[in-house]
Amino acid sequence: MQRLKKYMLKSKGLTLFSLLFVLFFTSCEEVVHLDLDTGEPKIVIDAEIQWKKGTSGNNQVIKISKMAPYYSTTTPKVSGAQVRVENTNGDVFTFTESAPGSYVCTNFVPVINMEYTLYVTVEGQSFTAVEKLTSVTPINRVEQTLMPDITGPDLIVLTYYFNDPVDQENYYLVDYTGDFLRYPEYTLTDDESTNGNIMNTSFADADMKPGKTVAIVHRGISKKFYNYMNLILRASGGNASSTPPSNIRGNIVNSNDAKNFALGYFRLCESDTISYLVE
Fold this sequence. Notes:
With 279 residues, the protein is mainly β. It is 5% helix and 41% strand. The longest helix is centred in the last third of the chain and has 15 residues, at 223-237.
């Protein structure tokens, strides 16, 4: 199996697809605050339509915010947007603001391989994006093992297994969350060398102890979103000593001004979720 290296997401106060990349400069004597220029904050659209197996998928949320200044501890929420999603059958799903920057739909209808178009009108700008809903096979099982660690206690390793469909390209994104993790950890996988076989993905963390619960969310994703996430994860966790790019472009375009695109990626994923109690 070919699996990409796992990266620990270290964004500050922002959701995954609303990343504002920063560097922290510290010394043993004092904290240095740099006087940084700030440009016009871009709109950030966090639009994941996630159809969890075993649910109707009717309830979906899209969040809209703006990039925050470097030293800001809060993310500016954007209110007053008009948000809707349409499918190729002409069905329209309206997202209504339920809280500042949070837009909710309660009658969404997910259909595997159906193409959907996102429309967002906000602050005089119109944004659109197109994507298909990608399926995923369920998680078969989760196994727990120990991995020797010469620097301390043995590490607990969780490995989950799933069947990869035959005769098609498949791409997967998984996230692991738990109260011992400050941020979720994400892993990308593909079936380039394991097509049609049983695949697995593993996770370990020094703070994952018996009695802790780990939520595993296993998604099927498109190739384009896979490539986008690969850039995001490499930039945010590959090399802490280098400055990652601040504007990795997704699939959301501005109909009024192509150069003034929104950050984020409109994606539609079927998912399977397991909560595992560490033994």
